[in-house]
Design brief:
Helix 2 packs antiparallel against helix 3 (37-63). This protein has helices spanning 3-6, 9-33, 37-63, 69-75. The chain has 4 helices and no strands. It is an all-alpha fold and 87 residues long. The protein has one domain. The protein is elongated, with a radius of gyration of 16 Å.
Length: 87
């Protein structure tokens, strides 16, 4: 493979985003399939977090600016999931 293509970060971000979209779609489908409320909440929260990550990749592709880990974490949804084991 051409080294220039391998070193192109946009090519890599696009591949990662495609995989994230597949996982998001799977999670969203599972929300409609499972009946347990806690599992539905977990799948919805997971899809939200991954969606925010896709947006971070989009922002990087548009601006060429890499977000710091702190900026990325601050951009993620602030949704807390209550774990059954903590009850």
């Amino acid at each position: 493979m051409n080294t220039l293509l391998e070193n192109n970060p946009i090519r890599h971000t696009q591949t990662i985003k495609a995989k994230l979209h597949q996982i998001i779609s799977h999670l969203q489908n599972d929300v409609g399939t499972v009946t347990e409320a806690k599992a539905q909440e977990l799948f919805e929260a997971s899809a939200d977090v991954l969606g925010a990550l896709v947006e971070a990749y989009d922002d990087y592709e548009k601006s060429g600016k890499r977000l710091s880990r702190t900026e990325l974490m601050a951009s993620l949804p602030k949704r807390r999931i209550a774990h059954a084991s903590r009850r």
